[in-house]
Amino acid sequence: MGGESVDELIQMALNDRDPDGAVRWQAISVLQGRGDLETFTVARRLCASATAPERVLGVDILGELGRDRPFADRTLPILRYLAASETDSQVLYAVLIAFGHLRDPRALPSVIELCTHDKATVRYGAAYALPNVLGKPPDPAGLAALRRLADDPDEDVADWASLGLTLASGGKIEDLGGQVLDP
User: Is the pLDDT higher at 166 or at 69?
Assistant: First the structure.
């Protein structure tokens, strides 16, 4: 895989109905590796699609295409728009994972906003993204959101947020009140 056109790679990814499918992610990886304007333009168009699977694919491509590439500043507004307007939880999850990959503190307000979403999948994505977009030093509002997620009723969300708190505190274990504990 790699000699195919952008459109052929998009079709390959869309034909693999498994969101974690090997063919899908291999095609996405090749697209991300291209890092060119054509790929960015197609991914941006997919983000505006009428179908959720196409929007997810567009976001998944942009999540790595924008990092350390000339498209970071063009990718973030697309993702922030989706974070504010999207209703599909799988698309929102993909947006949050993309924010985490991009590691851009400008995404923090969008991530904080989604921390209270009713779907655990979305809150899990927020718990993943937050430690990556907190900034240096970590933003207090972002840390507070991460602490709330560490107390989430969903065990996976709470576990990921707790790990995020540990990472945000420089590897020190932090309790929910913000106190650093001796490991």
Answer: 166
